[in-house]
Amino acid sequence: ATYRMIQEADTVGVFQIESRAQMSMLPRLKPACFYDLVIQVAIVRPGPIQGKMVHPYLRRRQGKEAVDYPSEDLREVFERTLGVPLFQEQVMRLAIVAADYSPGEADQLRRSMAAWRRHGDMEIHHSRIVGGMLEKGYSADFAERLFEQLKGFASYGFPESHAASFALITYVSCWLKCHYPAAFTCALLNAQPMGFYSASSLLQDLRRHGVEVRPVDVMSSDWDNTLEDDETAEVIDHSPTPASRETWPTPTSTLKQQPALRLGLRQIHGLSEAVGRRISQCRRHRPFASVADLCERAGLSRRDAALLAEAGALQALGGHRHAARWAVAGVQAPSPLLREPPPESPVELPCPPVAEDLIADYRTLGLTLGQHPVALLREHLRHAGCTDSLSLRQRAHGSRVRAAGLVITRQRPGTASGVTFVTLEDEAGTVNVVVWADLAQRQRRELVGSRLLAVDGRWEEVDGVRHLMARRLVDMSALLGTLNTASRDFR
Fold it and tell me: Which of 326, 331, 329 is nearest to 352 (CA)?
């Protein structure tokens, strides 16, 4: 079940394999055992990429290219990686087997690989390795090509033991995400900041897996995010039947017992940990009876109380945000002249519009559990010719499309020749966009400055990997300022 999830690149938040590059590789490499994960961790690195090792390995794994070993000695060195050098240990073993290096000299080769860009040390090994291979009957072309691959390790060649250690953490993380998604995401949120994704993106992913997320609430929330094990939530069952990975079915939804995730007070921007823990501790002694009771017993300042009201954390005590702000404003400091505050007539305040709540959520929490902002703008986007991410997956390879969404990641790896990878998020999921270097240069303002971005381009789907190849970028961030108008029907 865990490997099925990995093969689908359902790895948001997972150590080592959550980047765009890794997620694009997963459906192609299709890891099905632990050693596959060791290779997955090691192959998406500058060394193998610059050494042109990635595509030969994938072609051989997919049966599109024959695996050829020039000798039985080299078969022993490279068989586990289909004839492609991926690990430092393999390079050292190659030098010993093919060029008669001693173990100490092979270790010096390893050190030279790590330093050759700075000191040029690799060239002193060229004549010996290539010459030694020629003496043993290997072709000049093969020897030179192999040496060039070894130089690729200068940027980032992994030791196999290092990759295996990383792969173990990767597998455990994936197992938790697969079987206990609420607990996995809860732990990630409590460890922020880390990884590629914001708290908002992690929670959107969790909710797409059918797990309930509950809001920050002074009557229920602790400082940290917690689990409330009292609801049945719908999650994805990735269990393979039968066991052969070639015949694994498409995952189906089943009902499993999953706890809900309760957002903690730590998610409120500006609220101190001391205040948050004090609220939680006071509530354990006795539930709060009112906003005034909360402020008095937890010793809240006006600023603390205002932060809670703005974040919607007083819903259970004070009602919606407008009412909570009013309740906080009416809390008076104790006076020696008055044992009880003077009576007041109740005030009925209207609920804030959906968009106002949404904007307040992002301002105070950096996330929302309400409607996705793009959902409120969908009608505008539809008129602008934008396809949502769910419909996009049904489009044919090569289609001309336009998609739009909130920009949640921008990545430009050093080995990508200036290519920028952008991830857009809408109410249905995410869209992976590839922006070539020339377009990135021409439309740098739109690429860097847009919060809501529309992309005209070509839809591509190869080996289960979907990308929108950008041809034009359109900054639609101004639409975010119309949210109140767009949401008038959702009051």
Answer: 326
| C-alpha neighbours within 13 Å on the C-beta side of residue 26 | 25
In this prediction, residue 243 carries a pLDDT of 38
Cα 405 to Cα 208: distance, rounded to the nearest angstrom? 16
pTM, two decimal places: 0.84
**Of the candidates 12, 15, 45, the residue with the CA atom closest to the CA atom of residue 170:** 15
Identify whether the C-beta of residue 430 lies closer than 8 Å to the C-beta of residue 423.
yes
User: Backbone phi, then psi, for 28, in 5-degree steps?
Assistant: -85, -50
- Series of mean pLDDT values for 10-residue runs along the chain (491 residues): 96 93 92 96 77 84 88 89 87 85 85 61 79 87 81 69 95 96 97 90 94 96 93 43 38 60 97 97 95 94 95 94 89 59 67 86 93 93 95 94 95 79 94 95 95 96 91 94 53 28
List phi, psi (to 5°) of 313.
-85, -5
Pairing of strands 213-214, 260-262: parallel
